[in-house]
Amino acid sequence: MAEKENLPKVKSIFVYPIKSCRGISLSHAPLASTGFRWDRQWLVVNSKGRACTQRVDPKLALVEVELPNDAFLVGWKPNKSSYLVIRAPGMDELKVSLCRPPQTCDGVSVWEWSGSALDEGEDASKWFTNYLGKPSRLVRFNEESEMRPVDPTYAPGFRVLFSDGYPFLLVSQESLDSLNELLEEPVPINRFRPNILVEGCEPFSEDLWKEVKIENLTFHGVKLCARCKIPTINQENAVSASEPTKTLMKFRSGKMLHPSRKGQGQEMKR
Q: What is the rounded distance in angstroms from the CA atom of residue 120 to the CA atom of residue 83?
């Protein structure tokens, strides 16, 4: 009897409760219709309600978040003693109740989407204002009144909270290893902020996966992820440099991957 084919396996799961802040590494995470529960549920906005990300505020890379361990159990609901705990260098610890806040904030925008969000109050506003050095607020996606659909060209009927594009981002360890072989200084996986890290496949083979089965769940690969500035930001000190984007441009740009397509520009793939 032939041995069972070795298939790729999930190595790590990552959830990023506050968009552009540090993620949480998990062995398991409950699913919601918008992705993993708690993923990009919160967002820091400026005085105009626009999303603050590491692209403009790299200091967000140093903001650590913590949720109760039970928050990642299926069916768990927060109570009055449940908090999102936020820490950053030089700042006192901030605790944000996981219970639904009573106030809302209108005019919140992430890329092409705008709407109303739940406002986490003055203490959170003062904390992020002091940390970033500009008027800021912490808001939570209001799932009861708002909907943010993904691009229907690729995944009609699906939606997200404050994620850039889609409910999940998957990458393989082998792709990272292949890239690191070309770099003078290897970069860790946190530069790319995936939700699912797999191992046991050929480098960049995930580019071609149309269907991914994890236990009894089926995920669909609908689009390669366009490159942004964040992989150039060291997540340990918030310092930006040219790599790994400089190297990725040589073999992972849209122009290199799809030379016959128009409008690929400088887009690079994870």
A: 12
Separation CA 267–CA 168 (nearest Å): 19
Per-residue pLDDT of 246-262, as tens digits, reads 999 999 987 777 766 65
In the three-class reduction of DSSP (H, G, I as helix; E, B as strand; rest coil), residue 206 is classed as helix
Tokens representing 21?
């802040």
Distance of CA 77 to the CA centre of its chain: 23
CA distance 39 to 198: 18
DSSP-derived secondary structure letter, 240: B
Helix (H, G, I), strand (E, B) or coil at 90: coil
Rounded to two decimals, the pTM is: 0.93
Q: Positive or negative CA dihedral for 146, 63, 57, 136?
A: positive
Query: How many of the other CB atoms lie within 10 Å of CB of 106?
Result: 10
DSSP strands (E only) in 47-166: 64-66, 83-87, 94-97, 104-110, 113-119, 136-141, 148-149, 159-160
Q: What are phi and psi of 221, to 5 degrees?
A: -85, 110
Q: Is the Cβ–Cβ distance between 129 and 49 less than 8 Å?
A: no
Please give the Cα distance from 121 to 140 (Å, whole number).
Answer: 11
Separation of alpha carbons 93 and 23, rounded Å: 17
The tokens for 87 are 């820490």
Six-digit token pair at 218?
């089926």
The C-alpha atoms of residue 226 and residue 263 are separated, in whole angstroms, by 13
Which residue in the block uniquely carries the two structure tokens 């919140």?
Answer: 108
Q: The tokens of 223 are what?
A: 């689009």
Spatial contact of 195 and 169, defined as CB atoms under 8 Å apart: yes
Report which of 72, 77, 75 is spatially closest to residue 29, judged by C-alpha positions. 72
Does residue 243 contact residue 232 with C-beta atoms inside 8 Å?
A: yes
The ranges of the chain with pLDDT < 70 are 1-5, 259-270
